[in-house]
Amino acid sequence: MPPAETRRPQLKHTSPTFGSGDTVFIGGYGEVTEIADPTGAIRRLLQLLDGTRTTGEVHQALSADFPEVTRQDVDEAVAQFDEAQFLLDAQLSSDGVLEAHELKRWERNINFFGSFARMDQNKYEQQRKLRDCRVTLLGLGGLGSHILLDMAAMGIGHVRAVEFDRVELSNLNRQILYRESDIGQQKLHLAVERVKQFNPHIDIEPVDLKIGSVEDVLRVLDGTDVVISVADRPKMEIANWVNEACVRAGVPLITGGLETQRAVYYTMLPGRTGCIECWRRQTFAADEVAAQLLEEKRERQIGGDNAAFCPLVTMTTGFLIGELTRLVTGIAPPVAAGRLMELRFADYAMGESERWERQSDCPVCGTAADSSPQVAGLAASR
Questions:
Q1: Once rounded to an integer, what is the mean pLDDT over residues 179-205?
Q2: Longest alpha-carbon distance in the chain
Q3: What is the domain range of residue 80?
Q4: Which of 75, 138, 146, 156 has its CB surrounded by the most CB atoms within 10 Å?
Q5: Statement: residue 374 has pLDDT above 90
Q6: More confident residue, 5 or 133
Q7: Torsions phi, psi of 365, nearest 5?
Q8: Sheet harboring 32-36: ordered strands across?
Q9: CB–CB of 320/228 below 8 Å?
Q10: Could you read off the pLDDT of 12-29 as tens digits, one per residue?
Q11: Residue 59, domain CATH
Q12: Nearest in space to 49 (alpha carbons), one of 24, 83, 74, 76
């Protein structure tokens, strides 16, 4: 990364400026920042932030018209604009980061990442992090088929896909990778084939496995950066198996599903957030009825009415993939770390449903090592 004094600050295209009287406005895509500018110095400063000058050279040019403006004034203004994500460093490029084909294929991704980047961050590096990331995806059903396709679309480079099931007619209201002519065939190889047609550059390792234990999950975590679990059978047990395996392996877990009219998801960061067992213990301690209900569901294997609606599946996929993007690129912190987020279809109300803390006496994660360095490493240059 170039030293701060050699950076060439440039206003982003996503930060247009316009003025009215003695006021300058920056923005226009959902948010606008208003700045008082009685002398016109701010407006001139913004004109000079075109990527052709260092901050020192910007000050020299500005002081020709406004001699009262000091270098410190310019440095502070540039720092504030940078903190507000208005600026990029025009020196930063894709050289040595992405190939020409990648630049074109993920051009819109890169523009999106650029809207988050500050001057010391290279938007091309964010796409490279996705390319180099290794994700284990558990389940290729309603959510899983959408997630696999979305990961291919956004440029995730390596996926280990785990599935055992076969296509049924009732799957086709939401499982977008399969057709009526596929009924009776294994989902795994169909999904891999169709996603590879869409993006031949993605590396997908198919694993034909019906998960039945913690050890089964551990077998597919080797070399994994992040786990996305949308496998749902057996409903009560598989969440526990995946949770324990991810804690033991020190691998972040993103998981979610549908509950008839609502979608839920959460993120577990081993050694940093509470795990599923922490959540359960806190719930049981605070709500005896909830504890009894959960135990009844477990004993009777109550799994709901298996309701699933494609629009809700699609929205849930977006939240899960968004969480993955946050973890891998670091453009923003994960939203659902240590808390259950929910979306209700009836009114599209989105918010926190439950929150829990890590329990030091938790039999699953109480002594787990802090995974913060690994999580931070996902968003760091490799």
A1: 99
A2: 80
A3: 4-89
A4: 156
A5: no
A6: 133
A7: -120, 5
A8: 17-20, 23-27, 32-36
A9: yes
A10: 998 999 988 899 999 877
A11: 3.90.930.60
A12: 74
Give the pLDDT confidence score for residue 204 in this predicted structure: 99
Does this model's pTM top 0.85? My answer is yes
Report the chain's terminal Cα–Cα distance, integer Å.
14
Q: What residue type is assigned to position 238 of the chain?
A: I
pLDDT at 286: 77
Decide which of 74, 89, 104 is a domain's last residue. Answer: 89
Domain for residue 326, yes or no? yes
16 falls within a domain:
yes
Structure tokens at 272: 């940093």
Strand boundaries in the chain, DSSP class E: 9-11, 17-20, 23-27, 32-36, 87-89, 134-138, 158-163, 203-208, 226-229, 253-259, 262-268, 339-344, 349-355
C-alpha closest to that of 74 among 52, 54, 50: 54
pLDDT higher than threshold 80 for residue 290? no
Give the CATH number of the domain where residue 149 resides: 3.40.50.720
Q: Is 147 helix (H, G, I), strand (E, B) or coil?
A: helix
Please indicate, yes or no, whether residues 71 and 187 belong to a single structural domain of this protein: no
Examine the domain organization and report whether 82 and 154 are in the same domain: no
Q: What local confidence, expressed as pLDDT, does residue 323 receive? A: 98
Q: Is the peptide bond before 334 cis (omega within 30 degrees of 0)?
A: no
Do 80 and 138 share a structural domain? no
